[in-house]
Design brief:
The complex is a heterodimer of chains A (about 290) and B (about 300). Chain A has helices at about 1-15, 20-35, 35-40, 80-115, 115-130, 135-145, 150-175, 180-185, 190-200, 205-225, 240-245, 255-280, 285-290. Chain A has about 290 residues and is an all-alpha fold. Chain A has a single domain (about 35-45, about 55-290), classed as MetI-like (MetI-like fold), CATH 1.10.3720. Chain A is globular. The relative contact order of chain A is 0.13. Chain B is α/β, with parallel strands linked by helices. Among the domains of chain B are: about 5-70 and about 150-200, Rossmann fold, CATH 3.40.50.300; about 85-145, no CATH class. In chain B, α5 (about 165-180) links the parallel β6 (about 150-155) and β7. Chain B is elongated, with a radius of gyration of 21 Å. The relative contact order of chain B is 0.14. Classes of the chains: A mainly alpha (about 290), B alpha/beta (about 300). The interface of A and B includes residues 182, 184, 187 and 202 of A.
């Protein structure tokens, strides 16, 4: 029964929104790959094979049948490293989105509910953060905290905060003058109670969209910091770090940068397509517009 | 005395000055009585309501009330959380009072009893607000207002958005509840026929101050103040008599503070003193009227030749 419903849902999605269906499948595939990386991957991501340096992938002349996607300059299996990298990237993306969402929601709710000086203060700080190039801001954060994967995640999370703050604040300002909020206040409900129990359920839809986009941005930013040497430390398998390690060989062995680059591209594209799709689906105003066109 | 307000003032800062929405209003409400507050839009009715229930603090003046005053709004849909069922909505005041997250069984029993008292069918308890009619929604709002057994409830234009046939049902419900519970009601409305149906006492508001107050029968059938006369004459349900006043133009801006009577600019009986000094409420018969000519004994209204100077 349950499975039937799920099947129908998938068929409908495939029929109505094939791009979203593809994006969702890609992400599911990557999640499974990351989840089961230790069991699927043929080798340990840090294991080096002496004498098997810079082996080409399956289509190259220098192909070694042990290494499906070839090896890097110190003889590590690219396929295994990509699988483990998926794990790191997805976890990083998840924590970035979670951090941005939690901090952003709290700040946005305080700004929207309290108003006045507190609101102005929070919004101006967010404006300042949005005015700076985000990667520059992340570099500042990592420089303060020191380079590591955890700090890169924190930095990317900080960058995700302003978008969420604006979203939540706008929604709360809209709602708080409605009579149902006034009557809850009359019955003695506290501000936090009204915000959490009455207002938050009304803005879960836009928050979900924002979370999906923040997830994708998070992966990208963590990879970018890894590429700059400010994120994951070698020998950890992380897509951005893999890119950085391989960039010296971009002329001689281009597949070394292509493999992690493609992974980043496909995953982030999928997240953005899914986010756009959710936005269209959950925003009744947009849906009406697209139906009219 | 269940509610007493003395000399309330409330103003708001807006671009271009301060709106003096409530300018020295005093009122008394007795147990089991209904006090209606009437006036044109912009006269300060809603601000007064917000001050009385405690959504806003007055700038000055004193307010004595026995308990919390729940409020029923004109927007019956907007005053109910869109994702809660009727049962949850009626339980909400109890849940908040007890500091819980969800209704207890006792709350639900009490809510069902309240729903019965306001005439809601058992089947509608699981409905969401948008599935109900306007009249049913206002019954839910009244049930919520009664949940904490208040002495006073305030209704701000509760039936203005309803069909006339439904209006009568809701007004009769309020009258029944008043008798069975000894409830005091503050009823804000611009609709004089509704007020005539439900009110014991009437307060006529103009630009934030009271121009006339007294028993509903007196104020509505033998109005003394020129403004009350004009307001009644503008009621389309009454046939117009020759010589009656007609309100023209808009009231002056609430941003300006003129020294004299606030109605002076539109009043056909205006005298020199009206523009210089603000009249205070004085007893004239069984009413209190703030008007110099009336306090001096002038009968305004039905006389054929008002002083038009």
């Amino acid at each position: 029964m349950r499975l039937n419903q799920l099947g129908r849902l998938c068929r409908n999605l495939w029929r109505d929104e094939p791009t979203a269906a593809v994006a969702l499948s890609v992400l599911l595939f990557v999640v499974l790959a990351g989840l089961f990386a230790p069991w699927i991957a043929p080798f340990d991501p840090a294991e080096t094979f002496e004498g098997a340096y810079m082996k080409a992938p399956f289509f190259g002349a220098d192909f070694d049948s042990r290494f499906l996607l070839g090896t890097d300059d110190v003889g590590r299996d690219t396929f295994s490293r990509l699988l483990h990298g998926a794990r790191v990237s997805l976890l990083a993306g998840f924590f970035v989105a979670a951090l941005g969402l939690v901090v952003g929601t709290v700040l946005g709710a305080i700004a929207g509910w309290r108003g006045g000086l507190v609101e102005t203060l929070i919004l101006r700080v967010m404006d300042t953060m949005m005015a700076l190039p985000s990667i520059l801001l992340a570099i500042v954060v990592v420089t303060i905290l020191g380079p590591s994967l955890v700090n890169a995640v924190i930095a990317a999370g900080v960058m995700a905060v302003p978008g969420v703050v604006r979203l939540v604040r706008a929604a709360i300002v809209d709602e708080k003058r409605k009579p149902y909020v006034l009557s809850a206040r009359l019955f003695g409900a506290s501000g936090p109670r009204i915000v959490i129990l009455d207002l938050m359920p009304n803005i879960t839809a836009p928050l979900l969209v924002q979370a999906t986009l923040a997830f994708g941005d998070g992966i990208l930013n963590v990879a970018a910091l890894g590429f700059l040497g400010l994120g994951a430390r070698p020998p950890m398998a992380e897509w951005g770090t893999m890119l950085a390690d391989a960039k010296g060989f971009i002329e001689s062995d281009p597949w070394l940068v292509t493999a992690p680059g493609l992974c980043i591209l496909v995953v982030i594209l999928s997240f953005n397509i899914l986010g756009d799709h959710l936005r269209d689906r959950l925003d009744p105003k947009l849906r009406a517009r697209s139906e009219r066109v | 005395m269940i509610l007493r307000a003395v000399d309330l003032f409330k103003s708001y800062k807006v671009p271009g000055g301060r709106v003096r929405a409530v300018r020295g209003i005093s009122l008394d409400l007795e147990k089991g009585k209904t006090l209606a507050i009437v006036g044109e839009s912009g006269c300060g009715k809603s601000t007064l309501a917000r001050v009385l229930v405690g959504l806003e603090a007055p700038d000055s003046g004193t307010l004595e009330k026995a308990s919390l005053i729940p409020m029923v709004f004109q927007d019956s849909l907007g005053s109910l959380h869109p994702r809660r069922t009727v049962l949850q909505l009626i339980c909400e005041p109890l849940v908040i009072r007890d500091g819980l997250l969800r209704p207890s069984e006792a709350h639900e029993l009490r809510a069902k009893d309240l729903a019965r008292q306001v005439g809601l069918a058992i089947e509608s308890l699981t409905s969401l607000p948008h599935e109900l009619s306007g009249g049913q929604r206002q019954r839910v709002n009244i049930a919520r207002a009664l949940a904490l057994d208040p002495d006073v409830i305030l209704l701000d234009e509760p039936v203005s958005a309803l069909d006339v046939s439904i209006q009568a049902q809701i007004l009769n419900l309020l009258l029944e509840l008043q008798v069975s519970r000894g409830l005091s009601i503050i009823f804000i409305s611009h609709d004089l026929s509704v007020v005539r149906h439900i009110a014991h006492d009437v307060l006529v508001l103009y630009l934030g101050s009271v121009l006339e107050s007294g028993p509903a029968s007196e104020v509505l059938s033998r109005p003394s103040h020129p403004y009350t006369q004009a307001l009644l004459a503008s009621d389309p349900s009454r046939s117009r008599r020759p010589g009656q006043l007609v309100l023209k133009d808009e009231p002056p801006s609430p941003l300006e503070v003129l020294p004299g009577c606030s109605f002076a600019a539109r009043c056909p009986y205006v005298e020199a003193v009206c523009r210089l000094e603000k009249p205070v409420l004085k007893n004239v018969g069984r009413k209190a009227v703030a008007c110099f000519p009336v306090q001096r004994g002038l009968q305004v209204g039905y006389e054929p030749t008002p002083n038009l100077s």
